[in-house]
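#help-structures
NK: newbie question, is this the right format to request a structure? protein is Phosphoglycerate mutase
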Amino acid sequence: MNEPTTLYIIRHGKTMFNTIGRTQGWSDTPLTKEGEQVIRYLGLGLRNTEFKEAYSSDSGRAMQTARIILQEHLNGQAIPYTTDSRIREWCFGSLDGGYDGELWGVVPRILAFKNYEDMMTNRISYKELADAIIAADTANWAEPYEKIRERVWSGFEDIAHHREKNGGGNVMIVSHGLTISFLMSLIDESLPMQIGLENGSVTKLIYENGKFTIKSVNDTHYIGEGRTIFAKH
């Protein structure tokens, strides 16, 4: 009999760009020393969770996060690990690498809102967000909504389906804040836009017979547990 298929979807650790308020998207910076330490705590907090396999996006910050977790979690046990470009962050085109204020300054104006807070209060859709990013992108690199939707959904669904047909169990996945938030909206359209996911937070999904169920979002208690374990040694 199969075990339940459970995805532990982790937002990567805090990076240099996260710390100074720059938009990463498909650009990349490594984790800061503080960011690395928080992910070590996360790995310790997850050490009693058995993972059948592990995945991350192909972005450096996600791969670095996955390796740190696996180093702290393994205790000598090898877990198959694969990267998947489909679960990387949204591409912000020419806004990649710029300050967050540039992205969240121009996008609300394109959508006819006064500011970021006004835009979020009015609960825009992810399609509206994607269309506004394309409108703001002067390099024509940003992805259309349908392309983002197809790659993100197929990436996570293929991972879940593969695990289910191979006996189920837990899967560790390291991805990105907006991508994880977007996936939640595809599962439950009533959810608000969760742009503020914490670095190192865990969002947990159950997958059964082609359907996802959200169990928890933005859970940071594993980091706290790992910090306690670390302090005892």
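mod (FA): yep, format's fine, and the tokens are attached above. The longest helix spans residues 145-165.
NK: thank you!
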